[in-house]
Design goal:
Number of strands: 5
Shape: globular
Structural class: alpha/beta
Largest sheet: 5 strands, mixed
Radius of gyration: 13 Å
Number of domains: 1
Helix content: 25-40%
CATH class: Alpha Beta
Mean pLDDT: 82
Low-confidence stretches: none
Strand content: 15-25%
Strand order of the largest sheet: 1-2-3-4-5
Number of helices: 4
CATH architecture: 3-Layer(aba) Sandwich
Distance between the termini: 27 Å
């Protein structure tokens, strides 16, 4: 399950992932993001996975990376998650390499929003 965060506007989208997403939720999220890209052009995206309980954040992000589309239309991506996987050497972010991507810990969520908003 996910929810769109307050403050999402004008091509800036924040989501909070609260549990593993279903195929239907990916379809809804992709439709929303694709429509937004069509309306405003490239977007900035914040994905907050800090509160996901009982799931490996790295595995969840890998899953999300394989299901979300239109990577070329994401300018800035901020990922908020636990320090263990954000700091590790991993290819989890490889599919987003054309975007500016920055990783943040849960105590840096405000900083993540400020960075995404540019």
């Amino acid at each position: 399950m996910y929810r769109i965060l307050d403050g999402s506007e004008n091509g800036i989208v924040g989501i909070r992932v609260e549990s593993k997403l279903t195929p239907e939720e990916y379809d809804l999220l992709n439709s929303y993001l694709e429509q937004l890209i069509q309306d405003v052009g490239p977007i900035n995206f914040l994905c907050d996975m800090a509160d996901v309980e009982g799931l490996n954040s790295q595995a969840l992000w890998e899953e999300m990376s394989s299901h979300l589309r239109n990577f070329q239309d994401y300018q800035r991506i901020a990922v908020v998650g636990n320090r263990q996987w954000l700091g590790g050497e991993t290819n989890v972010f490889a599919s987003w390499e054309k975007s500016q991507l920055k990783k943040f810990t849960p105590d840096q969520t405000d900083e993540a929003w400020n960075w995404v908003k540019g």
